[in-house]
Amino acid sequence: QVELVESGGGLGQAGGSLRLSCVSFGRTFSSYSMGWFRQAPGKERESVASIDWNGEIEYYADSVKGRFTISRDNFKNTVYLQMNSLKPEDTGVYYCARPSSVVVGPEDVIRNRDLEVWGQGTLVTVSS
């Protein structure tokens, strides 16, 4: 059974940076695309970024493009989200997720398709 555990959330200031991590425990991590998602208070969960199995293809939501960077280290079974130039509207619970199959690419992950495993989330609060 696969478990995803996020960390790195906390309080950040507008214009500042935070780095989130998501460690995968269990089955093979390196063969799957991965994604980051977030849910702001009172809003639906939205996609943030996705990455393919070897870190060569990335997709971003327009709201974070140019500020956030997704990356992964398959030796450490970890996917990261580097968040720069933070804005108060980046506040929310951030989740990582893994799709149901290795054939699900990052273009589907960013569209919230075929996602099977979710972490418990890590809270990011950005003050103005």
Which properties best describe this structure?
128 residues, mainly beta, 7-stranded mixed β-sheet, 4-stranded antiparallel β-sheet, 49% strand
Q: Give the helix level as a range of percent.
A: under 10%
The secondary structure category is mainly beta
User: What is the end-to-end distance?
Assistant: 40 Å
Mean pLDDT score = 96
In this structure, how is the largest beta sheet organized?
Answer: 7 strands, mixed
Q: Provide the succession of SSEs.
A: EEEEEEEEEHEE
Low-confidence stretches: none
Any idea what the shape is?
A: globular
Helix-strand layout with pairing:
Layout: E1 3-7, E2 10-13, E3 18-25, E4 34-39, E5 45-51, E6 58-60, E7 68-73, E8 78-83, E9 92-99, H1 106-109, E10 115-118, E11 122-127
Parallel strand pairs: 2-11
Antiparallel strand pairs: 1-3, 3-8, 4-5, 4-9, 5-6, 7-8, 9-10, 9-11
Folded structure, characterized:
This protein is mainly beta. It is built from 1 helix and 11 strands. The protein has one helix spanning 106-109; strands at residues 3-7, 10-13, 18-25, 34-39, 45-51, 58-60, 68-73, 78-83, 92-99, 115-118, 122-127. A hairpin with a 5-residue loop joins strand 4 (34-39) and strand 5 (45-51).
Structure summarized in a few sentences:
This protein has one helix at residues 106-109; strands at residues 3-7, 10-13, 18-25, 34-39, 45-51, 58-60, 68-73, 78-83, 92-99, 115-118, 122-127.
